[in-house]
Amino acid sequence: MEERIEKIKTEYQNRIQQAQTLKELDEVFLALFGKTGEITLLPKDFSSLSVEDKKIVGPLFNQVKIELEKAIEERRNEVREESYKKLETEKFSLQLPKLQAKERKGHLHPLTQLLQETIEAFEKLGFQQFDAPHIDSDYYNFEVLNIPEGHPARNLWDTFYLDPYNLGSQPGRMLLRTHTSNSQIRAMKQLGTPLRIMSIGRCFRYEAVDARHEHTLDQFEIVYVDKKVNMANLQYLSEYFLKTILGKDIKARMRPKYYPFVEPGAGVDGLCLFCKGKGCRVCGGAGWLELAGAGMIHPTVLKNGGIDPNEYSGIAWGFGPLRVAMLKYGIEDVRSFLSGDLRFLEKF
Amino acid sequence: MKISIDWLKELVDLKAPIDEVIRLLPLRTIGTKEITHDFIELDMKGYNRADLLSMRGVAYEITAITDSKVTFSEPKENEYIWMGQNLPETPVKVGDQELSPLYCIAKITGLKVEPSSKKWVKKLIDSGIRTVNNIADVTNLVMLEYGQPSHAFDAAKVKGSVGVRLAQKDERMTTLDGKIRNFTETDLLITDGDGPIGLAGVMGGKESEITDTTTEILLEVAIFDPKTIRKTANRLALPSEASTRFLHGLTKTRAFQALNALIGMYQELGGKLEAISIVDNLEEKEKVVILTQEKINSLIGIDIPPTDVELFLNKIGFKLASHMTSGNVVWEVTVPYWRLDIEIEADLIEEVARMYGYEKIPPQKLRGKLPEKIDQSLFDLLYNLKTKLVGLGLTEVQTYSFYSSKTINDLRSSDRKLCLRLTINDLVKIANPISSETEYLRNDIWPNLLEKTAENLKYFKEVVVFEIGKAYQAKPQLQEEYRLSMLLAKDSTDPTPELYQIAQEALKHLRGEPWLLGGGKPDGNEYFHPTRFATLEKDGKEVGFVAEIHPRIANKFGIEKRVAVLEIKI
């Protein structure tokens, strides 16, 4: 048996060294480790060996097995490195004659589709897009939004902070924005009143990922400041959104909710898409789904934005596109959005 | 906060069935989480309603929304048990009055440690707190009812006078959970003659814990600085029912009521109040906020009659005095002591709106002039690019703004120094990543596309995708910018020209002639094919590149096909 093992070793090491292509190596691999490979089948004959012989043959077999696996892997890398050398001689030209464009069907990401629909709906009401950075300071993300350090509400937004060592900043000052509200003060200061903007994009939360939670998430938010803006306008905006995006029969309902940068604050429920208010599994029997958060902009925030709260009032209103897209398109797992999985994306 | 339904019925003479309470709470007060036959859990995450962290506060709220009455009355100051008793003081030294504006210690003797009664245990279990023994349970029951935490030390184990001060360097103590805690100079300590016996507002010390042999206790009721408690609770990752209440804010009125209730309950257990010290440097003033009819109506958007405003606010404990100013009712509103969250007129308007019922506010179209146009060309470009690329047969993917640990490893060169086109030190690094998967922000998008392509090639013969999103870098200066990244992987020995032509086609209608082809790849860059690489330049500046991925890198990612990428700043 020892001789047999040694023989396999010598024979295959030669074959491995002589292999010139990955294909040949694949063949060698199969001949050894495939279903009927020599290494695969060999242990079947061990049963006839004496206990003493087994003590010698067992470890030898394992050693040879590992050596051969390693030899194939090493030779594979050598063959690859050989082939990489030939790359130097490959030509580079982008000025080829017009290629016959291949017919392919592309797909827009479901979030892009939902957001574009939403953007076009709010454009009709005079809202325009306004961009704010993903990497921001504690000041714009929290301070000026009436969320000073030590405020219990900071626990609402578990925050990723930047490592200050290569930024030259103070620890705990720079962060990944936790919400699109970091646009509010910038928009107020740059654009003044009347103000109707949409702030859209990626936000980040320190949150463990599962089928319902993501650490990287989109937000859509509108900021509306003018004279005599009121909660009845807020109800209008909520209804307008739900009816446009989710269906004419989806009513909106406001509830009290606390966010430090609005007062009064409101949670916005939509009639459950699936049971239309009767109560079902999706809405947990409530008949309503929490779909958006909103409120009348806090006077301190208006002041921080250079707007006189005695003369003007405002609405901040936002929703999570991931959640609404899941409901609208029947997506079960929030991780699908950033999976990059074409089997998922090609459905849209 | 879990509201025990039995306990609620003890405190409120409910005029509505419990199902109605459950229906009304989210519409009038606060969202609910878990609901069972025994309790209703309020969704307190991030909330500022300190009063809802006590059964009494909850009782006031529920009486208002169900038109019921509470069954209890609040004791007057001269009714407190310790008043007029001429008791001796326990020795106390408060080192920092700002960090501990109210500090009371009562010595109670003649106690016997036993299991709590069934009724107490049920209340605790409904509220999500486990029973310990009768002496410790009293502190928890009073905390739940009044919102005021307290702590009982075994008096026999406390030596000399009790003190409150900041920790010194290198001080340490074993906390109730058996862990040794090393303190920093920002931790507020309770001490005796020998050293620390408790971590103020967070957790007591093991050594002075109530045990089966305890007969005398030192009962502590205090108000500590919330910021100090927060710092310590966060640093030691020790959030507790007590620290939550310190953080939300406490009142002197409730603290004295709680102390009174604690002593009363210990007396019922056979205890005797021997001595008491109250170190009170806390000034508690009534808050008065001005509220106007005009502002209520303009902010809510409907006319609410002044009589209703008064009715609503009276129900939840506010007192109002009104006068007329130019045809407009103005109220001086006195805020009940337990509503620490009410500070400005808008806070009162929320109270009026929620008692009226948010859901009854009718929709009203937006009025007023439209704002001036602002430049939307960037957003238009981003969307038009997407639709154009999709029209050319590419599928839009979105990937994380982070590099996965696998991507970082696969892109490290053999000497492990270089990473990507920058060194790893130039990447934006997260100080508190959830795991190594959220440690670095991407400074290019193509590596993420490559990672996803390896997965997709298990199911597809070719992959042609793009992503439009942001890339980030820390050096030379902190920066984020929009990029378009495109990738084509297929059975071809040279996919780059095809990808380049798609890009040209997509971009030509959108931005005129977008770029010129620049030079070859910089030395030492191992990620791209040795000859198939060109920078893309605009106005003499590099804005991107088109290249074939070096097969070595593609192989590392698990891809055997040739892969072309193009990435350009938008």
From TrEMBL, chain A:
Which catalysed reactions does the entry list for this protein? tRNA(Phe) + L-phenylalanine + ATP = L-phenylalanyl-tRNA(Phe) + AMP + diphosphate + H(+)
BP terms from Gene Ontology: phenylalanyl-tRNA aminoacylation
As one GO molecular function, the record gives: tRNA binding
Where Mg(2+) is bound, by residue? E263
Domain Aminoacyl-transfer RNA synthetases class-II family profile intervals: 112-327
Cellular component terms, GO, for this chain's entry?
A: cytoplasm
Q: Does the keyword Cytoplasm apply?
A: yes
Q: Which UniProt keywords apply?
A: Aminoacyl-tRNA synthetase, ATP-binding, Cytoplasm, Ligase, Magnesium, Metal-binding, Nucleotide-binding, Protein biosynthesis
Q: How does it assemble?
A: Tetramer of two alpha and two beta subunits.
What is the protein name given in its UniProt record? Phenylalanine--tRNA ligase alpha subunit
Gene source species? Candidatus Daviesbacteria bacterium RIFCSPHIGHO2_01_FULL_41_23
Gene for this chain = pheS
UniProtKB/TrEMBL annotation, chain B:
The entry describes its oligomerization and partners as: Tetramer of two alpha and two beta subunits.
Write out the GO biological process terms: phenylalanyl-tRNA aminoacylation
Where is it mostly found?
Answer: cytoplasm
List the PROSITE patterns hit by this protein, alphabetically: B5
What is catalysed by this protein?
tRNA(Phe) + L-phenylalanine + ATP = L-phenylalanyl-tRNA(Phe) + AMP + diphosphate + H(+)
| Keyword entries, A-Z | Aminoacyl-tRNA synthetase, ATP-binding, Cytoplasm, Ligase, Magnesium, Metal-binding, Nucleotide-binding, Protein biosynthesis
The reply to whether Zinc figures as a keyword in the UniProt entry is: no
Name the chain's protein: Phenylalanine--tRNA ligase beta subunit
Which family is this protein grouped under? Belongs to the phenylalanyl-tRNA synthetase beta subunit family. Type 1 subfamily.
Q: Which cofactor does it need?
A: Mg(2+)
Q: Name one GO molecular function term.
A: magnesium ion binding
Matching SMART domains, A to Z? B3_4 (SM00873), B5 (SM00874)
Entry's EC annotation: 6.1.1.20
Identify the residues that the record assigns to the B5 domain, covering every copy.
Answer: 284-363
Is the keyword Ligase in the record? yes
Location of this chain's protein in the cell: Cytoplasm
Gene Ontology cellular-component terms listed? phenylalanine-tRNA ligase complex
